[in-house]
Amino acid sequence: MFTGIIETLGKITQLESEGQNLHITVETEFVEELKIDQSVAHNGVCLTVVSVTDTSYTVTAIKETMDKTNLNQLEIGSVVNLERGMKLGDRLDGHIVQGHVDQTAVCTAISKASGSWYFTFQYDSSLHNITIEKGSITVNGVSLTVVNSKRDEFSVAIIPYTYKHTNFYTFEVGSVINLEFDVIGKYVKRITELG
Question: H/E element holding 161?
Answer without folding.
Answer: helix 160-165
